[in-house]
Amino acid sequence: MSSMALKLLKPFGLVEKLNLAALIKALVVPMTGILIFLFIWNIGARNIHTSLGEFPGPAQVYEQSKNLLAEHNRERQKEAAFYQRQDDRNAKKLAKNPDAEIKFRAYTGKATFIDQIGTSLVTVLAGFFAASLIAIPAGIVIGLNKTLYSAFNPVIQLFKPVSPLAWLPLVTMVVSALYVSDDPMFAKSFVTSLITVSLCCLWPTLLNTAVGVSSISADLNNVSKVLRLSWLTHVIKIVIPSAIPMIFTGLRLSLGIAWMVLIAAEMLAQNPGLGKFVWDEFQNGSSNSLGRIMVAVIVIGLIGFMLDRIMLMLQKKVSWDKTQELR
User: Fold this and answer.
1) Are 119 and 111 contacting, i.e. CB atoms less than 8 angstroms apart?
2) Quick check: 7 and 24 in contact, CB under 8 A?
């Protein structure tokens, strides 16, 4: 609302009412929805009994989240103590013999829940960026040429619905055969997860980019012809700005798919990450396992939500149409 309109409404006390209504819409309504969900979850959990005990409610999940954080802190203390002992031992050795050969060993303790969150985030972002580097340029080229669009659209539609569970065995075999090194830069499990994520998430970005580019206004294309812009200048000045909304729609879809695919791939292939954590807790079968799995489920959902919000912020930042409402 403009400043002039606000000045006109101020004597009638309507500005305060509008601010209150905006506050209710922004905070109270979402909080009400969350409280209703927690109430239904708590009631439902009390009536579900499994072989591992009662299904965890919000209180049990909160308790297990504190336990997982405490485990992480204890593991970091063990790591710090390990490196301190190593430094002290090397210092004593050098004091006796300045020419002595000292060794530095990496800490090989158990990966904590927090560590596996970090591993999953690194893997999904690497796979997503790799897919985007392929999908956006390919989508632009395909979208600018109707013949290429007609040729590749069936291929895109063919591979778009393929499950990561189908890709994973093939990717694992190919990586094992081709990625052979005595001192690899990346672990095979990381490369396998990265390629699987990329294969599954590049299609929405590729398709949306192609559609966005092919839907550019004829007037803009005519302006480009009148100005005699080169192909590269036409792409940078006309095509990409016009197709930004569709490109980011594809990127947001791809990032969400990448996050879902990664969890499934980690669970099936036992690659390090949140998926492996969930599977290990399921196999563990302790009385705390269900609560710890629910913590992972909530964290997976929160991370997926935050990744989508970050993409939305980037879209608002780079989009030329600032009046467009994005959700």
Assistant:
1) yes
2) no
Distances (CA, A) of 165 to 158, 160, 199, 200: 16, 13, 12, 10
The model carries a pTM of 0.83
Buried b (16+ CB within 10 A) or exposed e, 297-326: eebbeebbeebeeebeeebeeeeeeeeeee
Residue with tokens 């004593």: 92
Q: Rounded distance, CA 207 to CA 137, Å? A: 11
State the Cα–Cα distance between residues 261 and 168, nearest whole angstrom: 10
* Dist CA 152 CA 207 (whole Å): 10
Triad 218, 219, 221: Cα angle to 5°: 65
CB 182 within 8 Å of CB 139: no
**Do the Cβ atoms of 252 and 316 come closer than 8 Å?**
no
Alpha-carbon span 206 to 19, nearest angstrom:
42
Q: Can you give the pLDDT of all 327 residues of the chain as single tens digits?
A: 445 444 444 554 554 555 677 767 777 778 888 889 888 888 888 888 877 777 888 888 899 999 999 999 999 998 888 888 888 888 888 788 777 778 888 888 888 899 999 999 999 999 999 999 999 999 999 988 889 888 988 888 898 888 888 888 899 899 888 888 777 888 888 888 899 999 999 999 999 999 988 888 888 877 888 888 888 888 888 888 888 888 999 999 999 999 999 988 888 877 888 999 999 888 887 778 888 999 999 999 999 999 999 988 888 887 766 566 666
Closest CA relative to residue 169, chosen from 192, 146, 139: 192
Helices of type H across the chain: 3-9, 14-23, 29-46, 58-96, 113-144, 146-159, 164-178, 188-214, 218-226, 231-234, 240-269, 274-284, 289-318
**Distance between CA 197 and CA 122 in Å, rounded?**
12
